[in-house]
Amino acid sequence: METSKEHSRRIRPKLALRWVGAGVILTVITEGLAAVNAVSPQQLIALALPAAALTIGGLVRAVVPDAWTAWRDGFRLGCETGPLLLQTRPTGSGPRDEDPAGPGAAITPPVANKRGR
Q1: Over the stretch 68-86, which tens digit does the pLDDT of each residue have?
Q2: CA–CA distances in Å: residue 1 to residues 7, 11, 22, 84, 102
Q3: 94 φ, ψ to 5°?
């Protein structure tokens, strides 16, 4: 018997694809109305915005089932990648070695000559 969590993970992509399908259908309807000049440009925009929102939202939902999974996977990948980046960096490289005087060293006031000018 599957738990409700497993059930929701199995159902979510199907629901997301239904949202994508609804967005595509609304897009086709909008394009058809635009082709025959049946509605005004304002009405076409009013139809196109929800079509785009449905399609894009459904695609995002199909790729990322829930925010918790996305956060957990991103955190895990970051923890795996961080040490790899430190291993690939050559020794002695970095911004501190390039400018030992520090970031403000380039903005020093000019030294006055003996006359004070």
Answers
A1: 888 888 888 888 888 877 7
A2: 10, 15, 32, 41, 63
A3: 145, 170
